[in-house]
Amino acid sequence: MIFLMTTAPPENSPWSKPIRLPPLGLLFVAGSLEKSGFKVKLLDNYLFKKTNDELKKLVKTLNPQLVGITCSSASYPVCVESAKAIKEVLPHCKIVVGGWHPSYVPESMLKHPEIDYVIMGEGEHAMVELANCILNNLNEKAISNIPGLAFRKKQEITKNPQKFISDLDEIPFLARHLLTIDSYEREIPFLNVKPVDTMNIVRGCPFKCAFCETRRLWGPGCRAFSPRRVVDEIEYMANNFGTKGIYFLGDNFTINKKRTTELCEQIRKLKKDIDWVCDTRADMISQDLLRSLKNAGCKTIWFGVESGSPRILEKINKGITIEQNIQAFKLCKKEGIQTACSFMIGIPGETLNDIEMSYKFAKKLNPDWCQFNIYIAYPGSSLYDEVMEKGLFDRQQGFLKFVKTDEFDFDMLKQIQMRYQSKLNLSFRNIVKKMKREGIWNVLKKSPKYFSRSI
């Protein structure tokens, strides 16, 4: 039997308050293992936060031969402690870790003797191969040939080259049945239907944003599930979990116009009324494409605007101009599609004036939703390398670096973030939009204090 689990960041981490969304990556792996005939149990400990004593009791009862733990740079110390706890009660059980952080810094995981293997990049094929070797008692040579696997060999760390899955349709549906599905957020502010579930249908990114490390995880290209495969899974979710809305997570939903148009046509033909949200870039939409999206049920598009400063957009290598963002928002409003966007503040080299430009630009774009995020450096990106080389941080949590420059530190950025969010969310214009969108009574019922302060 194989036991899969997530880990939560430490309580004092910026990511310590969990967003209750299913762990899609682990569900992909679980589905692949089940398809290959393995029995799988799954614990989303990011959500449930079982103590190590509770974890010990659970694994002792399950007695798995292989444990897979997903790990981020934020949850790194907790992941290590979980591995130690498991080995205390099951010393012969093999532990493999995967996810963002192990993919970039496998050495940081394998320096701990409790961790036997690291899977770098996509885990579906590699995990199945590793499970076959361990549970079927194949020899060590078979394990050492698994693509994307890192392991210790004669006191040295060996890292096998990654091999990306060329045809994503080979991957089975996510093993959502392993979850207590109603423990998760199944409604979002961007849609007026529920329950809403998440999907990820595109992997990889051809762009080279300085703050992002996606290329090292998924490869330099962009691959996607076929429209038919996506629609089949939507239908499966609607029939088995009552899904009425979808949030398509992933930055490049519309990167291939032909494929996106075909997907929209197939969603439109479904005998299900599905509303949905997607993420994309401002330079990857057009009026005719937006019309296809809307006709297929798209209600909202999320854009990563990142900055209102042309200088910072160039520094982070976003590849999108101020004018392109303005045009994209105009097109969405013309077609009746709601807009949401995010900005980053605290980029190394950014000034307080640059940050203020982002706030003013957010007001100009006038999105339906807007989020300001504080940049925290984590391994894998060129911006992280800059932070490390120049020592532009004054504190850290494991591998996370909190940026400090002559202009700002993390505490100052938190104050700026709260001020900007408050000004945008509590503006009379946004309250009116919220009432039109959700109804006056719902706004008053959900947040009477919020409403009274805004007037």
Task: Jot down its keywords.
455 residues; alpha/beta; 2 domains; 7-stranded mixed sheet; 6-stranded parallel sheet
Structural description of this entry:
This protein has 455 residues and is an alpha/beta fold. The chain folds into two domains: 2-159, Rossmann fold (3-Layer(aba) Sandwich); 186-454, tm_1862 like domain (pyruvate-formate lyase- activating enzyme), CATH 3.80.30.20. It is 43% helix and 18% strand. The chain has 20 helices and 18 strands. The chain has helices at residues 24-35, 45-48, 52-62, 76-89, 100-104, 106-110, 124-135, 140-144, 214-218, 227-241, 257-269, 287-295, 310-315, 322-335, 352-365, 382-390, 410-425, 428-438, 440-446, 448-454; strands at 2-5, 40-43, 66-70, 94-98, 117-119, 149-153, 156-159, 196-199, 202-203, 223-224, 245-248, 275-280, 298-306, 338-345, 369-374, 376-377, 393-397, 400-403. The strands form four sheets. A seven-stranded mixed sheet has the order 2-1-3-4-5-6-7, sandwiched between helices. Strands 8-11-12-13-14-15 form a six-stranded parallel sheet. Strand 3, helix 4 (76-89) and strand 4 form a beta-alpha-beta unit. It is globular.
